Each structure stands twice: as structure tokens, then as C-alpha cells.
Amino acid sequence: MASNFSRILSSKQRIGVLTFVGGSVTAGFLLHRQHVGAAAPVRRSYPASADYPDLRKHNNCMASSLTPAIYAKLCDKATPNGYTLDLAIQTGVDNPGHPFIKTVGMVAGDEESYEVFSDLLDPIIKERHNGYDPSTMKHPTDLDASKIHSGNFDPRYVLSSRVRTGRSIRGLSLPPACTRAERREVERVVVDALAGLHGDLDGKYYSLTQMTDGEQQQLIDDHFLFDKPVSPLLTCAGMARDWPDARGIWHNNEKTFLVWVNEEDHTRVISMEKGGNMKRVFERFCKGLLEVERLIQERGWEFMWNERLGYVLTCPSNLGTGLRAGVHVKLPLLSKDPRLSKILDNLRLQKRGTGGVDTAAVGGVFDISNLDRLGLSEVQLVQTVVDGVNYLIECEKRLEKGQDIKVPPPPLKQFK
Amino acid sequence: MPFGDAHNQVKMKFSSEEEYPDLSKHNNHMSKVLTAALYERLRSKQTPSGFTLDDIIQTGVDNPGHPFIMTVGCVAGDEETYEVFKELLDPVIEDRHGGYKPSDKHKTDLTSSNLKGGDDLDPDYVLSSRVRTGRSVRGFCLPPHCSRGERRAVEKLSIEALASLSGDLNGKYYALKNMTDAEQQQLIDDHFLFDKPVSPLLLSSGMGRDWPDARGIWHNDNKTFLVWVNEEDHLRVISMQKGGNMKEVFNRFCTGLTKIETLFKERNHAFMWNEHLGYVLTCPSNLGTGLRAGVHVKLPNMSKNAKFEEVLKKLRLQKRGTGGVDTAAVGGVFDISNADRLGFSEVELVQMVVDGVKLLVEMEKKLEKGQSIDDIMPAQK
């Protein structure tokens, strides 16, 4: 974009930047990230007021928080990788949103985005995550699955159990901003680490660019295959660039542990199985995640994590744990009860159809999962789902017997 | 999506090999030209506004193409793109524009009186006539790269210039984001309204950003002269009317364009133009004249004739369905237009369409009577 990057013509930095043009090793300047400050100011051809987006018809978290003043303050900043505010908000400018569904409306291009653009991202995070204030609070991480109790559901009701999250590789840009080489590096690092998994986690990687028709069909039949994003929320953020280069799917031989590489995040990690043994699903989830973390650390890499934000992912909605633990559960009687929404709200759960987000429930079968992501640990969130689903099953059983059900009390306010 | 030079410097810490796109399944002009060696030579460059090689080629990387349709696979972000990246764009231009060499000069001729005939195409066959082109305002970045401030400045300038048109060119501007439902319906009924691009060819290059900010449609009261602002190019200019009087359409086209250019110059803005590439537009396929002159013409018998394609090729014409590019012909009605854009002047291209369509209608009439068309087969133009 014209105005953002004209700084090469103006500042004293010109000499410094021009020395990189020859392709020499630039480790010193660009990899040096002791302080996460912005890069040198970006010169614009137009004042901030001329470039400020028209958000009058918009309804997303970015539009709610991006005042002209904040825009003016941040529009000249860039992360050390050169990611700018305009790039971060493009998806929210291009997708005004819906009166009933409030999308986030911005993404991070790298780990530093959350620092450099904190004046905008902190209020967005607060709005999206129930008042969690990244400037003052700490996020707890807890992957000790042994703490889960009562996590084996009645299989007459719970058809399947699943836990997913994402992980980003520190030092490499995120999907909206990564170069082809960075994306390929993510693939290399992750596939290398996954190759070190053994036992029930022994598995195989299928690159999207190289899979055979047979492999593709099998992955579709297993419901493992992900396709190029079509949602404009994602494509406007630049996440689909260079598709399908460096994208792929890894899964264990038992088909209970699955990793997506370079889809919406560097990695998406999924543990799942038929039936109601959520505790076992979560045990495998934690074991797999911790093992992968150990394997990448052996090679000198680590996940993006900090105590303000927990695990750092592309979308601010997935910060903290990035965790969605859910079940497919049969609740035909409860599904017709007008109190269901309130019950779910108070249990801190959300319902979706079994096709995932934005689908409808079919035959009284719902996808029930945790609402929260940040400010509560993985163990806390999974326990919330366990307790909540057990409660819903109790309600269904009571309704089957013609008994009445109670709406549970709302939880204590968490972040005030 | 355009990232610019700071991001480009980050890429330089990786080797060219690590960054070079995988083009093994690709079939577009860019993929045919961009070898690994060329990528290495060009990847550290950028235009003064910060447009880089990866910005240029993103659309071609994301859209491998089709075995039968050759897309261009690259776009310009500003006027300087064609200079800074000439090592890539010159061969692309040469492939796309019939061997046009880096040393060739392009002739511009908007003197419509130089057109011979064109006012007598048989209206029983020729249903409508249309001429379109594009113009870019010098000093502003092009749709893949412009900031919101720039795009709005182009819109403001265009509104001011168009507001000064008078007589049969007196008209009104409709901003996409401000139009009423009634205005929108009228524009749809008139077939004037353009919508947000859905083609991934366009979206991958960043042209859809900030939609519908600073986009709009201007047309004259007579609905025969239309200007699109900030769609695929800064300006797209269209002259059209029912029937076969291409001469009148072209007269209005030239008059209108020349007036608009004068009005811009009065405000100290020129159109992007040079003697090698003619008018500079976003897509290399539209360089030179950027002109597509065409008719909707009924050719049911010709369309079933084995020699149809050959005739079109010889006449330097192309066919499309009446929905525009990538649509099929319905009821034997085709959109027939010039295949060339660069290396021929505006008058020359419209002349080819006028002469060629006249011949096609003649052939159609012969086929109707069961006669052969062999004796009036044209030579290769």
C-alpha cells in the first residue's frame, strides 16, 4: 500500500534498509526482538483522517473499538516484520458483519501484533472474552488431564467427544502475513516433530500438494480433510494465499489425534473419538500437545505463549487456551424446551449443529461446547463442559420421565 | 494482499529458492515466464510506492489457471510496476499481445472521423453496439495497491471532472455506498450496476479491499455513456446503444474520453500513458488501447458452421456469450469484439470490428439461403 511503505524514501533508516536489498544475511536487525516495539514509523501520503475506514455500517469488535483517535495513533506503526494496522483490520473493514453475530473483525499477522496494536486489541479482547483485561490479568495454563472427574458420559446420549486447539510457532509470522518460505518452515518444523510421536500417537502426514486421489478420498470419508477457506472473513485476511502450498494434515494411525498444518493457524490440534469418554480424549490431547512441544523444543523452537494472553493464535477469539471441547449429544426433548438457551448460557456452553459453526441441529443432536477461551485454564474449561453436559443429560432423563427440570444458577462473574 | 517493502525485507532473510512459488501445476502467462532465476533477480525490488514482485504475482500463484484458458496471472500496483519489473512484464506482454516487443511503439488514435463506415450494420442482426476502455490517473496507485485515502482521492477527482460534462453528456454520479434502493434497482434494470468482484482472479490481487468505499457509477441522462469508478481500474469508460450504429457509439466514446481527459488536465492530473505501452491499466491484458469494441449479433447459422472459429481468428475477433467473458451464447446471439488491445490504435480496432461484423452478417445471410461462404472467406488480418 502506497503510503504505508514510503518510509524507505524518507528516513535515515534508508541506508540501513538498503543494505538488505542485496540479499545478505539480515539476522541482526530483523531477528533482534529484545523489545517488542514497533518498527520505524511508516510514512503515509495521506493523513490518518483520509485513510480512516468507513465503519458506519459495521458491527464487529474492531469497528466498535477503532475510533479515529486510535487509528491515528496506530496507523503509522508496524511490527518488526512490517505488519501494519491496515493489514490487521482489513478483514473487518471488508466484512461489516451481521446484526446478530458479532465477529472479531481483525487478525494478528505475528506475535508482535498483540503488542504493537494493543491499544486496539486489548479492548477487543476485553469485549470478546467477558471483560478479561490483558493489561492487568494473567491467563492460567493447565494441561494436567488427571484433574478431570466424571468425564465419561452416558453413551446412550453422547455420540462423540472432541477437543481442539491451535498452536503457533514462535519466530514465524502467522497465516495472514507469513511468506511462502515461513509457511514452509512451519510445515517442516511441525511435520518433523510429529514424526517423533510413537505408540498410540504413531501417524502420518499428508501434504495437500502431494496427496494421491486415494488418500484424498480416505481423508474426506474420515471427515479429516480441510479445504481452501471460502469464508471472506478468512480470505480477506490473506490466509488463503499460495494455497495449497505447505498445507497438510497429519493424523495418528488410530485416527483419534489429528493436526492441521497452515490452515487458519500454524497448527490446529484435534483429539476425538466416538462415544462419551471425554476424559480419555482430553488425556490424549494433553499428552500429544506436550509431546509435540517437547519435540519442537529439542530442535530449538517453541510455541507462542505469554502469561497475558496464553497461547497466541491468529484470531483474538482463540487466545488463551484456544480450546473448544465439545460433544455430539442427543437431546431431543430438551431441544424443544424453551429454557434450553438460558440453561446453556448459565452453564457457559454454546450449541451448534453437528456440521459445526453456523449449522443447524438435526434430529435433536447438538454440538455442545465451551463458550470461553481466555482467562480460564484448559482443565477448567473441559471440566465446565463435563459438568454442563452431565447436567444436560440429567435434564433430558428427567424430561423422559415426565419430571420437571431446573435452570441452573448463572456462574459468578469472572473478570470484574 | 499488498504488504510492501518492510515485509519484503523480511523475506530476504530466506533464500530465493525457499520463497519461489510452486508453479508446477500452473498455466498462466506469469507462470510461463517466472523462472526461479528471474524470481531471484527481481525479488528484492520494489516500486517507489512499495509494490513488490510477490504483490504482482499473488493472483497468478493463487489461481493456477485452466488448461484451455490462458490468464495473465499478474497485475500492476502503480505505473512504475511496468518499468521496475519489465524483465517479467515485457515477456508477459509479448506473449499476451501477439509478439509485441519491448521496443515497439503503440499508436493512439481517438479521432473518430477516421473510422470508415460503421453506421450501417444491419439492425435485424446487430442488436447493440458498445465500446469500452479504461483510464488510470497518473500519480495514484492502482486498485490492487491503493490506500483508502488514495482511492477516495481518485473518486473525488472523477466526480468533479464528470460533473463538468454537459449537453448529451450531462449526467449524475451514484456512489455505491450511498445509493438508495430505488437507484440501485434502476441501475440493475439498466444493466449498469457493477457488483463487488467475486472472481478469485481479482480478489487475490487485492482489488476488492474496502468495498464499496469510493466506488461508484456515473452515467449520462441518455444512458449511452457510462463511467465506472474504482472497480477493476481507476476508471472504466463505456459508450453503448441499441442497434448497429457503431460509428455513433465510437463518436460519443472519443468525444467523451477526450473531454474527460481535458477536465482532468485542468485539475493538473494526466492519465497514465506512454508511447510504448499506450494507456497503462491494472491488468497487462488491457494495455495499449484498453479497448473492447463489440456488438451483440444474431449468428445462429454461422455458430453452427465449421468455419466460424477460423473466420473469427482471421478477422482478429473473439466471441463471448452475451453475459460477457466466460458466458455462453444464448439463442445464437453472440458478443463479438476485437481480440487485440495493444499495437493497434483505437480507430484500427473499431474498424476491424465494423468490417468484420459486416462480413459475418453477410455470411449469416448466405447460410440462411443455403449458399456457401467459401468465396467470401477473409484473409488473415
Automatic annotation (TrEMBL), chain A:
The molecule here is called Creatine kinase U-type, mitochondrial
Pfam families recorded for this chain? ATP-gua_Ptrans, ATP-gua_PtransN
The reply to whether Translocase figures as a keyword in the UniProt entry is: no
Q: How does the protein's chain sit in the membrane according to the entry?
A: Peripheral membrane protein
Q: What class of enzyme is it?
A: transferase
Q: How does it assemble?
A: Exists as an octamer composed of four MTCK homodimers.
What taxonomic lineage is listed for the species of origin?
Eukaryota, Metazoa, Chordata, Craniata, Vertebrata
- InterPro entries (alphabetical): ATP-guanido_PTrfase, ATP-guanido_PTrfase_AS, ATP-guanido_PTrfase_cat, ATP-guanido_PTrfase_N, ATP-guanido_PTrfase_N_sf, Gln_synth/guanido_kin_cat_dom
The record's annotation in Gene3D superfamilies points to: ATP:guanido phosphotransferase, N-terminal domain, Glutamine synthetase/guanido kinase, catalytic domain
The UniProt entry, under PANTHER family, shows:
ARGININE OR CREATINE KINASE, CREATINE KINASE U-TYPE, MITOCHONDRIAL
Q: Which domain of life is it from?
A: Eukaryota
Q: What does this protein do?
A: Reversibly catalyzes the transfer of phosphate between ATP and various phosphogens (e.g. creatine phosphate). Creatine kinase isoenzymes play a central role in energy transduction in tissues with large, fluctuating energy demands, such as skeletal muscle, heart, brain and spermatozoa.
- Output the PROSITE patterns linked to this UniProt entry: PHOSPHAGEN_KINASE (PS00112), PHOSPHAGEN_KINASE_C (PS51510), PHOSPHAGEN_KINASE_N (PS51509)
UniProtKB/TrEMBL annotation, chain B:
Where are the stretches annotated Disordered? 96-116
Q: Which reaction does it catalyse?
A: creatine + ATP = N-phosphocreatine + ADP + H(+)
Question: MF terms per GO, please?
Answer: ATP binding; creatine kinase activity
Pinpoint the Phosphagen kinase N-terminal domain residues: 11-98
Name all Phosphagen kinase C-terminal domain ranges: 125-367
EC number, as in UniProt: 2.7.3.2
Q: Member of which family?
A: Belongs to the ATP:guanido phosphotransferase family.
Q: Can you name this protein?
A: creatine kinase
Species name for this entry? Cyclopterus lumpus
Which gene is annotated as encoding this protein in its UniProt record?
Answer: CKB
